[in-house]
């Protein structure tokens, strides 16, 4: 009888962190070019565009005020790319989430298993990139809180 060997994803373990993050970034960046959703994306884009100049016109979205501050700041710094630029900011948020997750769990999981888990999560979560919005921002903030809490507990 043949001995059973567990499947190991050696190429994922041998890949450098920069290459892994680069693949994640390219995947999310390529998905930014698929169709536009002018209902929710348009509402958020108008919120970001007007939060500093005409806040009274976007008061409906103030429940997401912190998101508006960050999206509005990005829109002020990079006004010309429009919706694509805000999708790019969404890609950056996803990449930051992957980075924080990887850093938080790398000491506890095998590198290949951690990376395959992140890739599977990416296929589910980031299969339809939208512009920067509160869901992406919440994930980043939760991961930052978990990272700081973990560092404090492990001290």
Short characterization:
This protein is mainly α. The protein is 66% helix and 0% strand.
Description:
It is a single chain. The longest helix has 24 residues, at 82-105. It is built from 7 helices and no strands. It has one domain (10-153). With 155 residues, it is mostly helical. Helix 2 (17-31) runs antiparallel to helix 5, helix 3 packs across helix 4 (65-77) and helix 5 runs parallel beside helix 7. The N and C termini lie far apart (49 Å). 66% of the residues lie in helices and 0% in strands. The protein is globular.
Shape: globular
Low-confidence stretches: none
How many beta strands in the DSSP annotation? 0
| SSE topology string | HHHHHHH
Number of domains: 1
Average pLDDT score: 88
Structural class: mainly alpha
Strand content: under 5%
Main beta sheet strand tally, sense and closure: none
Put simply, the count of helices is: 7
Radius of gyration: 19 Å
- Oligomeric state of shown chains: single chain
How much helix is in the residues?
55-70%
Distance between the termini: 49 Å
Essential attributes:
about 0% strand, about 160 residues, about 65% helix, mainly alpha, single chain, 7 helices
């Amino acid at each position: 009888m043949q001995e059973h060997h567990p499947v190991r994803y050696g190429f994922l373990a041998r890949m450098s962190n920069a290459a892994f993050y680069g693949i994640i970034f390219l995947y999310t960046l390529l998905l930014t070019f698929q169709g536009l959703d002018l209902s929710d994306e348009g509402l958020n884009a108008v919120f970001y565009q007007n939060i500093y100049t005409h806040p009274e016109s976007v008061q409906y979205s103030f429940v997401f005020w912190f998101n508006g501050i960050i999206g509005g700041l990005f829109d002020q710094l990079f006004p010309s790319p429009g919706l694509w630029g805000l999708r790019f900011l969404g890609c950056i948020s996803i990449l930051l989430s992957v980075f924080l997750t990887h850093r938080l769990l790398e000491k506890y999981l095998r590198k290949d298993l951690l990376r395959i888990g992140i890739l599977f999560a990416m296929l589910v979560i980031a299969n339809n990139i939208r512009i920067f919005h509160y869901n992406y921002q919440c994930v980043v903030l939760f991961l930052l809180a978990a990272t700081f809490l973990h560092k404090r507990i492990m001290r």
